[in-house]
Amino acid sequence: MRMPLIAGNWKMNGSLTLIEQFGEAFAAAELSSSVEVALLPPFPYLPAAQAALGATPVVLGAQTLNPAHSGAHTGEVSGRMLKEFGVEYALVGHSERRQLYREADEAVYDRLLAALSADIRPILCVGETLEERDAGRTRDVVLRQVGHVMARLDPQQRTRVTIAYEPVWAIGSGRTATPEQAQEVLAAIREYQAGFDRELAAGLRLLYGGSMNAGNAAELLSQPDIDGGLVGGASLKVDDFIAICQSAG
Ligand code: PEP
Questions:
Q1: Which pLDDT does position 196 carry in this prediction?
Q2: Does the CB atom of residue 209 touch ligand 1 within 6 A?
Q3: Deepest in the core among 30, 48, 160, 194, taking most CB within 10 A?
Q4: What PROSITE patterns does the database record attribute to this sequence (predicted)?
């Protein structure tokens, strides 16, 4: 019922050459039609990615967006602009944005609304730091991040959101959450959502992110509440990324 999504977050990495490689590899890859794949390159690569991946099932995503549609926001990019390049998904609240660019829950909410109003599907990223986990605060932190946004949306808006649980300590560290740890938190997110609407919670797509790779993806994705992955480092290696996509469907 929930179509898995594998989203590759290139962060500030990649090149035009890599875009070309992805285009060729995905054109030749055997992918199940029951898995959705999104690639999120840096902004300048979007037109090239649109051209290179146009004949493949891969859709495009953005790593962030500004809450405004246009105006005096030097250096920023709006949802409307992204939409012109075929962007279908946008990350909001990635832990690197929260930590390095001080985007707190309210800024995340604003960006999520901006994505929705540009007809882009937001992927809301949430997750605890190691300190918070060690202090036994994982559930509180994650549900606060989820609640700050989801509790203020109307039911129609909620159906457009995907949530990615990404423990901060697992991102780029090579230290993956165990399938049980990831499942426990994602089940708690779904249960929280069921408090608003059971049917909507059952259809809510939940991803795991944090050092997912070709070797551990299948086990993570076999968990009942893990509906896909948000993949950083391993999404820069085309063979690994395709292998992850294949283990999802
Ligand atoms: C990410 O950046 O969202 C991520 C999950 O990175 P990595 O896979 O490298 O841990």
A1: 85
A2: yes
A3: 48
A4: TIM_1 (PS00171), TIM_2 (PS51440)
Split at pLDDT 50, 70, 90, the class of 195 is very high
- CA dist 149 and 158 (Å) reads 9
Over residues 41-48, mean pLDDT:
98
For the question of residue 166 being annotated catalytic, the response is yes
Residue 8's pLDDT is: 98
Architecture of domain 5-247: Alpha-Beta Barrel (3.20)
- The full set of domain ranges for the chain reads 5-247
Catalytic residue selected from 36, 96, 128, 166: 166
* Ligand 1 in reach of 212 Cβ (< 6 A): yes
Atom of ligand 1 nearest to the CA of 96: 2
183 C-alpha to ligand 1 centroid (Å): 17
- Whether 94 sits among the annotated catalytic residues: the reply is yes
98 — pLDDT class (breaks 50, 70, 90):
very high
